[in-house]
Amino acid sequence: MERNLVQIALFAALIVVLGLLPKFNLVSGVPITAQSLGVMLAGAVLGARRGALAVLLFLALVAIGLPFLAGGRGGLGVFAGPSVGFLIGWPIAAFVTGWLMEQGRPAAVFWRALIASILGGIVVMYAFGIPGMAVVLDKDLLTATGFAAPFVPGDLVKAVVAGVTVEALHRLRPGLVAARD
Amino acid sequence: MLSLAVPGRSWAHRLPAGVKLIGLAVASTALFPVGDLRILAVSLVVALALTASLGPAVLKQTFRLIRPLWFMVGLLIAFHVIFGQVAEGVATALRLVTLVLLANVVTMTTPLKVMMGLVSRLLTPLRPLGVNPRAVSVAMGMVIRFTPVLLERAELVRESWRARSIRPGRWRLVAPIGAAVLDDADRVADALRARGGVAAVH
Lengths: 181, 202
Hints:
The structure holds two protein chains of two kinds.
Chain A: H1 2-20, E1 24-25, E2 31-32, H2 35-46, H3 48-63, H4 84-102, H5 109-137, H6 141-148, H7 152-172
Helix pairs in contact in A: 1-2, 1-3, 2-3, 2-4, 2-5, 2-7, 3-4, 4-5, 5-6, 5-7
Chain B: H1 11-14, H2 17-31, H3 37-52, H4 56-82, H5 86-109, H6 112-123, H7 133-164, H8 174-194
């Protein structure tokens, strides 16, 4: 119990720290931050349940007024803004990433983490984020997709980084990645 | 310190947090279906007046908090101008800014401690579903406490990378930082267990 709780709390803190890293610009000029990488990692390393709880804990702290979102944002205002769908999608994205990670044999960690991050951390995330944008900005889904599309290449980069990182962690600390206990 | 709340003694600071949250929920629900520009403009003026009545410190924080919103508002209005539905775009932008302002009023006038207390109280009815409000507040405290520790860890990893390589480390640093986090988690969990577990932490 204590170990699970502490791992959840420390991964929530890791998501905060990744949001504080300086953002860098893609060739297209779209800024990307590492924060959603933290969501993919939480799912892929902690597994579905604990990963989703780590993200929920992070969001609860943002909601009660801590400036933990990339760029020092936070508070209830972000849940009234255009990215609310993405925020709602985050814990579900972590859950799906973790669930996919827990399927099958623990071989080929890189590929499993990469595919889990793409399906969970990108497909699921945008499946919530785009309708959220459409509702808040009062646009149809196609237009909202256009607004969100420039961020997809950055997220693909993050999924690859998640894959490489999870494989490295699996080598550094065998048995910890998406371990069920 | 870390929190976005602004210390003060305004009327909004004195209102109970629960009342403010209910007010925010009512305002959001009420404004959502409104398309009339006049009503929306008045709402925005009211939200601005509410914010301004809380003093210069809150106003300054507000402008910092809504800065990222201007880009979206600009994009939104530009889009509607191109498609010739200016009124609709202005309505959406007004509603968006108003709601974000109101939500920020709650955040800025409610101290972190009060918010955490509120979360605990809101979670208590979920006890039968296996939610432990005690564990949640311990975990929240832990995230706040460990964020600076992890930042320091990340800085250490970055420095040791720089001592060995002339290339920037960037994403290669995430794995060693992740390993440090998992190790820290093990040690903290042991320390917590040695002190009687989550139930004993105060």
